[in-house]
Amino acid sequence: MISDEEVKSLFKNTWRIHGKHYDYKKPHEAQFFRGIDSLTWENQHPDGCKRHLWVFEQFNIVPKYCFNCYKVLIEPRTVMELFKLMMVIEKMDLPNDNTRKCTVENREGVSGIYKGLIYCQSLDEGKEVLETTRQMIAEEISKDIPVSLKRGCSEYAASYPEYAQTGQDTAAMEYKDEWQKHEDRADREWVVINTQPPASPVYEPQTYTPRDALVMFTWLKYAATIGDDSYLKICWRLQPFHNVNRPSPFRPAGND
Predict the structure, then answer these.
(1) Which of 2, 165, 184, 240 could bridge 225 with an S-S bond, Cβ 3.0-4.6 Å?
(2) Distance CA 140, CA 54 (A)
(3) Range(s) of the domain holding residue 55
(4) CA of 81: how far to CAs of 50, 132, 218, 243, in Å?
(5) How far apart are CA 52 and CA 63, in angstroms?
(6) What are phi and psi of 244, to 5 degrees?
């Protein structure tokens, strides 16, 4: 099991090295990445997921590429568990070095608070990674942390609930051929504006960068904002962010 003291020491050392880069007046990225860059996935669009989400937003269709995208979702209950999850995904040895991240939820209309995501490019791969992840989370953090398999982006499921189904008792939603004309139009009009994090050095395993340190500090301020006092086991008392409201209220672990 990863101890609270290990988390505190990790943040203290990382902040000592990289904390000078933090601008307290600016909002910061909240996503911690490891694994391969999603732009390198097989047959991926040059601008990756940004293109796919743009297609969805413009035409309310799920892009064809996204029908093979699955993700293992881990839901830490406190920021302390989020840090421990970060340490777990750092050392995960997956056959395809799957793209994976830890983050806090700040999207309007999307439930949840703390999340870890491991992206897979088929249902079979998703099932394998799910079992591996459940075992590691139970051994390193807690067997009570929810770990599940989802399909694609939450935005898609809001419009097409059947798209998100992965259970054996439900038929998987299939791509609609009439949507192809919208994708073709999108690719004629789409302007590549790639702003996704580069594969190196951000994804370099076992190496915490200045960006990683800023992400960690953002998590801690987010925890202070929503009333998750477990952050005080990691750092000093912090001022909350302004105008951060979550649709899922924070509950201390074990208070169901």
Answers:
(1) 240
(2) 38
(3) 30-200
(4) 29, 18, 15, 24
(5) 6
(6) -115, 115
Structure-block tokens of residue 86: 């970060």
Among left, alpha and beta (phi > 0; psi -120 to 50; other), residue 254 is left
The SS3 assignment for 23 reads coil
Q: Is residue 248 part of a domain?
A: no
Q: How far apart are CA 83 and CA 225, in angstroms?
A: 17
CA 226 to chain centre: 19
Q: What pLDDT is stored for residue 203 in this prediction? A: 44
> For the domain that residue 168 is a member of, what is the CATH number?
3.30.70
First to last CA, the chain: 23
Would you say 93 and 55 are in contact if contact means Cβ atoms under 8 Å apart? no
Q: What are the structure tokens assigned to 87, written together?
A: 């340490």
How many structural domains is the chain composed of? 1
More confident residue, 36 or 251: 36
CA distance 126 to 55: 24
Residue 216 half-sphere exposure toward CB, CA atoms < 13 A: 28
**Three-class DSSP category at 69:** coil
pLDDT tens sequence across 154-211: 889 889 989 988 766 666 789 999 999 999 998 888 755 544 444 443 444 457 888 8
